[in-house]
Structure prediction request, 888 residues.
Amino acid sequence: MDHSGSLPTGTVSSLVARATGTSPLACYQCGRCAAGCPQNVAGEMDLSPTQILRLLQLEIAFATDPSQAASLQRRALGADTPWLCAGCQACSSRCPQGVDVAGVMDVLRQESLRRGLYSGSPQARSAMALHKTFMEGVLRRGRIHELTLVALYKLRTMNLFEDALLGPAMFLKGKLHLLPPAGHDTTAVRRAVESLKRRREEWHGPAAGEKGSG
Amino acid sequence: MARIGVFVCHCGENIARTVDCAGVAAASLEMPGVATAVDYRYLCSDPGQALIREAIVKVGLAGVVIASCSPRMHEKTFRRAAEAAGLNPYLCEIANLREQCSWVHTDRDQATRKAIEIVRAHVARARYNAPLVPVRVPLTRRALVVGGGIAGIQAALDIAEGGVEVVLVERSPSLGGHMAQLSETFPTLDCSQCILTPRMVEAGTHGRIRLEAYSEVEKVEGYVGNFQVSIRRKARYVDPNRCTGCGACWQQCPMKKLKSVFDEGLGKRTAIGVPFPQAVPNKPVIDRENCIQFKTKKCGRCQKACPVGAIDFDQQDDLVTEQVGAIVAATGFQVLGKEAFPLYADGDHPDVITGLQFERLASASGPTGGEIRRPSDGEIPRTVVFIQCAGSREPALGRGYCSKICCMYTAKHAMLYKHKYHPGRPIVLCMDVRTGGKGYDEFWRRATEQDGVLYIRSRSARVYPSGGRLVVQAADTLLGGERMELEADLVVLATAMVPQPDARALARKLGIGYDSDGWYSEVHPKLRPVECASAGIFLAGACQGPKDIPETVAQASAAASKVLGLFAARELLREPLVSRVHRAPPPVHSICGGCFACEQVCPYRAIEREEIRDRKGNLIKVVARVNAGLCQGCGTCVAACRAKAIDLEGFTDEQIVAALGALAESNVEPAGAR
Prediction:
């Protein structure tokens, strides 16, 4: 059911509805997203995807009460869940109500930065470091070179030996190439990124209080 | 000039809140032909109707316009009031000021102006209303019931007990339907077959019920009171008149390992046989697809074994035509198969079964004799996970509805498993537990409190095999979505109820409607729940939507009482709002040119051919004629007629033109006289 037209303006939920085409109100809290989420591990994800959707539903209901709504937004946008989402889309493809849960997480990541509600917890910081390293690589070469990505990511987080043992196995499977791919013209990629930034500004109006890039 | 009375109803606040009713009445007095106009708080009340009756008599009204709610609500009420005052009821006209004006507008001035325009159009057409007389239609006092499950059995028995002959058509070899497959029934846990089979026998032997088993409805023609139904009796390859049901044939059949349809593929059957021991009629059928004689001509063991020579490999399908006056559709449902669930072990794991398969496992007459044993290796499962809402309430897969019965039968399954195997651990994954019904919630509480069934509020994300067991991914939403990997030996899916695969095809044969899911549509969801929009056709049971047994039986009895009510009259009276082909004295006869474009477009097959002959019997011309019994007054033929030879009573061209003219505030009078 399409509720996207009727959500209160200014809410995170209305942005979610606009970006994903489904309203958080479609969620009936069955928990299938939480059940199949590979990142939903106790002690890591502070809120399950189901709970994130529930917070958004409460935000809609209490949108006319600014302090209540702000508190709910702080909880949803300050959660580590969006940063731990790996974007595998298992939740989106299985949701019986057709909610694009992974798309919701995308919106929440962007909004948490835009509104300055990004939690800055270790989980969120390492996810952020990966996003930044990834985007820098894309802007530099137009494509990703996995070995450079891993090296720069480890330097950025100073977490040098985590998952180090996976390296040889990935190399043997041909997932890690020693040399970067042949140089590509990066102008087209830069243009695409610029156009996306412009479109994001049109979407929100001029960005305010933005802390990171991503 | 016509003397027309306008009566404006406030409908309490429903109309009066947004429409100035007194203003509408005052404005109506200015309209041509209006002799009196009043407003009143509730015209449908007794004093309101008295007001109308008095005005008709005192003012000598020749027509009335009631400005009130939709004609679907109270047209009958007001027409009856007009008739009581001596006015032909079809001279009473309803102008809808509620659904089409006050309910959909907020601005009082604009709504009032619109209300006046609506009344103006109706006053204009009321001036051309003609007195009409209901159409009288003869009646065949005989009923057809399609479907021999519990709904069809109940409806047939009730109609037959009411003294009317019934033709009961069942397409499978035996009566019984899904209820015959069930183990025990909620919330009383009484044995399904024990309560059903006596009814089957009763229906099979009743003096006024003609059972046509292993037959299908081929074609339906005619109309309420006068249907002609062609029924295809499929070839059984067994002469039912000779067969005694002794069973010698199926004991000799060499094809012993076919999957039993009745046991939902969990048991075995032979190529000749009855679906289950208590079948009615107890006469076998040969499954042509799997019979060696039909494949290679080298068997015939059943024929040799039959002591009465009833086996006839040359038997052909047989078409019979039945005359009936009413039809009850009781064609039931299917459940989704597990192959519809790729998330659950790819939809083809032997130990992932449907609820209906679990019924066969739990049934004393089932393939395991009532012991719960998993299909893969026959072991008794130590943990059984039941997954509710499998395929129901899942708009992403095209099914948004709740199948209604699964909460209750899953509670029953979990209980039966626990009763049959005490150390077992039943776990139910539910979203909500819906237990509306007498004794239903108590039943579910018993499952959790006494039998220790664990309910987890979760929808499963995935089921996958692992080390000879199954792993069910879930998340306890009451613990905030904590993930759980449940190990199970057997997984039971409470799969959705879906319409019969050919439900739409039968609906088209019967000329009845269905919703977007394929369930048959009733006229009104609350007040006319067993009638179809096509007169003379009634609904019983799950063909209309998911239902449990008590509801199905109640609806079947309701449909039967509707049939008996219809048959209580000597002949049928039908609304005279039907099409009429122009006829005139010789030498014109009719302006119909005989092109029969109307015949092509009529959805109700109401156009007949009439031969006009002179006194000597010489054919002058062939013209169209409308069968008033069949015509539903849709007006399609009127639009299709090139010669303008057809008019629709109550909606004649001159009435429509007058109404449109009034709306355009022009003084155009309709061309031509009646």
Notes: The first helix of chain B runs from residue 21 to 29. The radius of gyration of chain B is 31 Å.
